[in-house]
C-alpha cells in the first residue's frame, strides 16, 4: 500500500519542498559539469593546458580536459548508476556527492595536466552516478501523476546554474585572488556549495517505495505517514483512501542485452537519440 498511499497525495507544498531540495542538491552537480568550458581559458593562461593537441592521445591539450569529464560521466552512469537500486537512493545520492566534492576540491589544488585530468575524471564518475540517482530519486518521491511537473521544476532549478557559473567564471578566471588562479576559485566555490548541500540532504528521506521493496515496511510507513500528516496540516484537506495497486511482480535481475530485445528496443533507441542530441 505504500505506492498507493504516495500516488494519491496532492502536489502540495511538502512535496514541492522535497523536489526543491533535490533540485538544490543537483544544482551544484550541474555546476561542476558546466564550468568545464568556462575555466578553460584560465587553465591555458596558467600554462597547464594548450589550446591545441599535438596528437590524438595527447594530454596537454584543453580537449583532453573536456574529454576527461565526459569519460568520467560515462563510467559513473554506466557502472555506478545501478547502485541506487541496491543501497537506496538517499545513500548513493550522499556518497556520490561526497565523491565528486572531494575529487573537485583536490583537482583545484593540482598543478600538472596529468593530475588535473585524473581528478577531473574522478569528479565525472561521481557526477555521473549522481545524475541517474537524482532522476530516480525524484521519480520515487512524488506521486506518479505529478512526475512531469516535478521533473520540469527540477530541470528549471538545475539549469539555472548555467548563467550563474558563467558569471562566477567571468568574475574570477581573469583574476588571482590571494595569489591563487581564478579558475581554482571557481571550483572551490562549487565545493563550498556542496558542503551546504550536505546539510540540505539531511531533510531528505529515503525512498519509501525502495524501502517497501526491501521489506523495510515500518520505515516506509513512518516516512509516508509523516508526509501525509504534514500535507493535511498544511492544506486542511482530507486525503482520499488509497486505491490498491496491482500486485508487484517480484524483482528480477536482467542483463544489458535485454534492453535490445524487441520489447524494449524502440524505447532504448529513442532515449539514446534523445540524450545524444
TrEMBL record:
<protein>
    <recommendedName>
        <fullName>Major facilitator superfamily (MFS) profile domain-containing protein</fullName>
    </recommendedName>
</protein>
<feature type="transmembrane region" description="Helical">
    <location>
        <begin position="119"/>
        <end position="140"/>
    </location>
</feature>
<dbReference type="GO" id="GO:0022857">
    <property type="term" value="F:transmembrane transporter activity"/>
</dbReference>
<feature type="transmembrane region" description="Helical">
    <location>
        <begin position="185"/>
        <end position="204"/>
    </location>
</feature>
<keyword id="KW-0812">Transmembrane</keyword>
<feature type="transmembrane region" description="Helical">
    <location>
        <begin position="15"/>
        <end position="39"/>
    </location>
</feature>
<feature type="transmembrane region" description="Helical">
    <location>
        <begin position="152"/>
        <end position="173"/>
    </location>
</feature>
<dbReference type="Pfam" id="PF00083">
    <property type="entry name" value="Sugar_tr"/>
</dbReference>
<keyword id="KW-1133">Transmembrane helix</keyword>
<feature type="transmembrane region" description="Helical">
    <location>
        <begin position="92"/>
        <end position="113"/>
    </location>
</feature>
<keyword id="KW-0813">Transport</keyword>
<feature type="transmembrane region" description="Helical">
    <location>
        <begin position="59"/>
        <end position="80"/>
    </location>
</feature>
<keyword id="KW-0472">Membrane</keyword>
<dbReference type="GO" id="GO:0016020">
    <property type="term" value="C:membrane"/>
</dbReference>
<dbReference type="InterPro" id="IPR020846">
    <property type="entry name" value="MFS_dom"/>
</dbReference>
<dbReference type="InterPro" id="IPR005828">
    <property type="entry name" value="MFS_sugar_transport-like"/>
</dbReference>
<comment type="similarity">
    <text>Belongs to the major facilitator superfamily. Sugar transporter (TC 2.A.1.1) family.</text>
</comment>
<feature type="domain" description="Major facilitator superfamily (MFS) profile">
    <location>
        <begin position="18"/>
        <end position="277"/>
    </location>
</feature>
<dbReference type="InterPro" id="IPR036259">
    <property type="entry name" value="MFS_trans_sf"/>
</dbReference>
Amino acid at each position: 500500500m505504500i505506492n498507493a498511499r504516495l500516488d494519491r497525495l496532492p502536489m502540495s507544498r511538502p512535496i514541492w519542498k522535497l523536489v526543491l531540495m533535490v533540485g538544490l542538491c543537483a544544482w551544484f552537480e550541474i555546476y561542476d559539469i558546466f564550468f568545464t568550458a568556462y575555466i578553460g581559458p584560465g587553465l591555458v593562461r596558467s600554462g597547464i593546458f594548450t589550446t591545441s593537441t599535438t596528437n590524438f592521445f595527447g594530454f596537454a591539450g584543453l580537449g583532453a580536459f573536456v574529454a576527461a569529464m565526459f569519460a568520467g560521466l560515462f563510467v559513473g552512469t554506466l557502472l555506478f548508476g545501478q547502485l541506487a537500486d541496491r543501497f537506496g537512493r538517499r545513500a548513493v545520492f550522499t556518497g556520490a556527492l561526497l565523491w565528486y566534492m572531494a575529487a573537485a576540491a583536490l583537482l583545484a589544488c593540482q598543478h600538472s595536466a596529468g593530475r588535473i585530468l585524473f581528478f577531473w575524471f574522478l569528479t565525472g564518475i561521481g557526477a555521473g552516478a549522481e545524475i541517474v540517482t537524482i532522476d530516480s530519486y525524484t521519480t520515487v518521491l512524488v506521486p506518479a501523476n505529478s512526475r512531469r511537473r516535478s521533473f520540469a521544476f527540477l530541470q528549471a532549478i538545475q539549469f539555472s546554474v548555467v548563467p550563474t557559473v558563467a558569471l562566477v567564471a567571468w568574475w574570477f578566471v581573469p583574476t588571482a585572488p590571494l595569489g591563487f588562479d581564478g579558475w581554482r576559485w571557481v571550483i572551490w566555490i562549487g565545493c563550498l556549495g556542496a558542503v551546504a548541500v550536505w546539510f540540505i540532504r539531511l531533510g531528505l528521506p529515503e525512498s519509501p517505495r525502495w524501502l517497501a521493496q526491501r521489506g523495510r515496511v515500518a520505515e516506509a510507513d513512518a516516512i509516508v505517514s509523516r508526509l501525509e500528516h504534514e500535507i493535511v496540516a498544511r492544506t486542511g484537506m482530507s486525503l482520499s483512501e488509497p486505491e490498491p495497486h496491482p500486485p508487484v511482480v517480484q524483482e528480477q535481475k536482467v542483463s544489458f542485452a535485454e534492453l535490445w530485445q524487441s520489447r524494449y528496443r524502440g524505447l532504448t533507441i529513442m532515449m539514446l537519440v534523445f540524450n545524444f542530441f
